[in-house]
Specification:
The protein has one helix and nine strands; from the N terminus they run ββαβββββββ. β7 and β8 form a beta hairpin. The chain has 113 residues and is mainly beta.
Length: 113
C-alpha cells in the first residue's frame, strides 16, 4: 500500500508485522539508503550492504490476511485496518498505529478481503 502522503510503502509480512518503508526520491536518497560496512573475518575484505530505512509500525500475533489505509477528511488523518487469521480486525490510527481505535471481533472465519 502507498501511504496517503505518498512518501511511504506500507507492507505486512507473514508473521504479523506491518512495516513502513520510505520511498526513495532524488532529494532524499542519501537518508533512505543506509550503507553498512562489514568486514569478512576470513578474507578481511569489506562488504557494503545497502538496506532501505524501515520502521515497524504495528504487529499482530497471527498471520495478516489483509491491510488497508483509509484517508479521513482533509486534515491528513488516516486509519490502518488490518485483519489476521485469528478472526480479528484491528482499526488503528495511521501513522501512529500503536494507537488502536477499535477491534472488530466475532467473525466466524478469517477475513481475507
Amino acid at each position: 500500500l502507498i501511504s496517503p502522503c505518498g512518501g511511504f510503502v506500507v507492507v505486512a509480512d507473514k508473521v504479523g508485522d506491518v512495516l513502513q518503508l520510505k520511498i526513495p526520491s532524488e532529494d532524499n536518497l542519501e537518508c533512505v539508503i543506509l550503507s553498512a560496512e562489514e568486514t569478512d573475518p576470513i578474507s578481511d575484505a569489506k562488504n557494503t550492504a545497502l538496506s532501505y530505512a524501515q520502521a515497524l509500525i504495528m504487529g499482530h500475533f497471527s498471520c495478516l490476511t489483509r491491510i488497508a489505509i483509509a484517508q479521513l477528511g482533509s486534515k491528513g488523518s488516516a486509519i490502518l485496518v488490518s485483519a489476521d487469521r485469528d478472526n480479528k480486525v484491528r482499526v488503528s490510527r495511521y501513522p501512529d498505529a500503536h494507537e488502536i481505535e477499535s477491534f472488530c471481533l466475532g467473525h466466524s472465519e478469517f477475513v481475507s478481503s
